RNA sequence: GCGAGCUUGGCGGAAUGGUAGACGCACGAGACUUAAAAUCUCGAGUUCGUAAGAACGUGCGGGUUCGAGUCCCGCAGCUCGCACCA
């Protein structure tokens, strides 16, 4: 290529599509289902997007980061799996259908097409031949197979469960769709309803899910902590309280109440027993007591409202029942129903020990229940420790506790459990906060649960040969409820067992199910079985998973569960799905409001030194907080418009600059412009090298001019520094180092005539091309092609390695301190030690001046680092 | 309430216990230009000083060290997550 062929400015409009086409036609990113034997494998995965319609900046940041890793690892010689797909089921598609009459499938596929186009314009090195969309039968049919295998393995069961029921929309709502006790869409008061639902038995793996966290050393500590708390292991005891005088006709099964406690040593401090409003015994009481029934109804009504949770007022209802104390058979205690007792933790009942628990204390005070003192805090005297001093929730020694008197809480705990076991009324247990995962959703746009309900046979799994159970397309959204339920024919089938008329399950899976195994499907996305063992076992675990912190608990925990369940059913053999996890920060932007308080889009606002004004009316605009880009605040910037104005590389470069990836970043117009300037500048500088420095320019040997030496050292230092930064995920630092080398190369033009400079400039330019390629791949290819027109693609070239000789430091500028304060610098040889250095340091003019009249008590010299004089007087 | 994280120039941020503020943005001065844009060069923590240089400086208070943004103890502020978990 001659200078004439090289455009003076970098025209991303033509350059970017050209290299994208080349990568595609050369198949440079493709990898086989079974990882090649001659290379180490590396699986990079970003959390796949929900196809909402448009890619947003958060996606760009997420995928740019992942692409840096993918391209870098590829250059380091790894076989890199870097797939992309769509989390394509979910409610927004049904909402679009109800609001705009477009079919969910069409809406979803259109969105996917639009977003795929944007991703492709951004030049990510993705395996597009592995693309999956969870809403297609090719994917969800395999998911149905997994479910049936889980069912056969006892990892799934069916049971009654409470749901939030919207009587107007005739649908089940998630907790976050219930606002102040009303449906988010209909505004109707929400009812609690019991439905028969499918559950994944995630609790079966609770101990392993907890233990496994210890092996995830490349996960952020806080995510592991969040999961640990969510799983919530606690040790304690389960014990039964028998009813003192059950009323005549009371159910035999309800003649005792089981409670869980972590503090069995405080049993002598018992004041009352409290039941959850949904507890079976509470229901029994309500049958014959209207006031109790009212109280329970009241609790249910308030249970879902935000207000109730915030007020958190403890309220109770005395049932009149009494229970006997296991250690004090002649004493009995009242049984209350209390709004703060949770049915789904422990056994839905607790014994109240007011002296050792804030909540029990508040309750006892409110209803004037006794507060027996059983724990004496360390350093307190039993004679003046009173209930008025409030509860003591820490450790201490036990008092007023019969056989436990004098023991520490810890010793008392062991003893109390032993006694309970001896009496046969209780046992030491481990309790888990984690609950089984209810996966049934009464929705159309989800994966059908492959079960057929037969009056004679009960729930019958759909036989393998009838899979996939495909969603019918001809559905209507003109009335409330689940369209699958309304469909005239779809659900009516013959029972696979007995052949009699039966009905399909019309529930579909929670969409978290879809995303719980997609990483495994990516390894063999077109296989007839859910996974292919050689592919799944070969590629998994994901070496680097990248996504938002908002999925720290549920998605990651469900995926970890699925991995275990899939291993148990023989679909793969790995213990954890994600070996490394990186949670990137959000993309924020200023928000703008006009005088009336209405939100404005960034493009409607003109910013000047004097302030912010409306671009058309000139009205003064209030600049609000910098916060997460959101449609409601209108502070969004569309990636498509940025790509059109500045190109993909500029967008990528900007989201990777400045802010460390794990922190939030602020999107600014000035920042993008700066990134665009850099892209042009680097192009100009490298173009100048390609024009001025012949490809066969020789390396200078012997006497090397200082400017040449400096540039070569800068080049090799940059290779080392960028490599280190990328390994450490500090892409912002890699960007800074590339800025530095770019400036050094520009500066070298001034010494262009020095012997060997042409070689050094070419070397620097080539290095820049290769090092910037993970971040700005199109620019990287273009620069490389200017320098070496017919060479291999940057995407296929190995990562440069620095020459050790050029990394070595030749001259040290040594800082000289007096009493730890910098007073001057001297030159030193590398590793130079001994008296000569100290002498030169003492002689440094400013140092000598300040040492005048002082006595040097101690001389400290750390070679290559520092000289420090400690003085007296 | 419990837990985690953060706090460094005008702004984003950099810094294996060893010259704090790399790099970028914004800003100022200059060059080029009829002019502007673009580009290039130079400058810049604050205060004092013509300068050399000095004092102060990484949220606040202590400590360890020859030397602390970095390690330890205590405190404050902000952000996020969980939250009646028996």
What keywords describe this structure?
873 residues; six-stranded mixed sheet; 21% strand; globular; RNA-binding
What does this structure look like?
Keywords: Aminoacyl-tRNA synthetase, ATP-binding, Cytoplasm, Ligase, Nucleotide-binding, Protein biosynthesis. Belongs to the class-I aminoacyl-tRNA synthetase family. It is found in: Cytoplasm. It catalyses: tRNA(Leu) + L-leucine + ATP = L-leucyl-tRNA(Leu) + AMP + diphosphate. By secondary structure, this protein is of the alpha+beta class. Helices cover 36% and strands 21% of the residues. Strands 28, 29, 30, 31, 32 and 33 form a 6-stranded mixed beta sheet that branches. A 4-stranded parallel beta sheet has the order 2-1-26-27, with helices on one face. It has a 4-stranded antiparallel beta sheet with strand order 6-5-9-19. α1 (12-26) packs across α24, α20 (669-692) crosses α22 and α20 packs antiparallel against α23. The longest helix is centred in the C-terminal third of the chain and has 24 residues, at 669-692. The chain starts with 11 loop residues before the first helix and ends with a strand. The relative contact order is 0.11. The model is unreliable at 304-310 (pLDDT under 50). The chain binds one RNA strand of 86 nucleotides through α7, β11, β15, α11 and β33.
Radius of gyration, in Å, reads: 35 Å
Helix content: 25-40%
| Alpha-beta content class | alpha+beta
Distance between the termini: 71 Å
Question: Brief description of this entry?
Answer:
This protein has 873 residues and is of the alpha+beta class. Helices cover 36% and strands 21% of the residues.
